[in-house]
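In the lab's daily routine, each protein ends up as an entry in a very long ledger. A line of letters takes care of the sequence, but it says nothing directly about the fold. The three-dimensional part falls to structure tokens, numbers that each stand for a local backbone shape. The outcome of that step, for a single protein, is printed below.
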Amino acid sequence: MIAFQFHTELFEFRARAMQALSAAGFDWFLDYTSVDLDHERFGIEVCGIQEEPKAEQILSALRPAFPSWGYSEIWEQYSGSRDLGWVVLICSDPRPERSI
């Protein structure tokens, strides 16, 4: 099993992501509901995006802020979260292998 790792530097990267989104014209609570940390994959998730095309635009706005982070995903969150809608993940690590 992979042990949880806590990366404090992700808080600085979250601020960088929010600045990049603001500079690209995206507004918190209007275009997305949260920017979360993904410690497991060393990345940032932008959640609560209401339209898939906007999620793709958000990912495009984040790529220049994190040029060395080579992995990204977009998916729709249907349930189990307060931030329903599309989610953009940009991270430095591929999906980790899990063992039980």
The chain has one domain: 9-91. The mean pLDDT is 89. The domain at 9-91 is CATH 3.30.1360 (Gyrase A; domain 2).
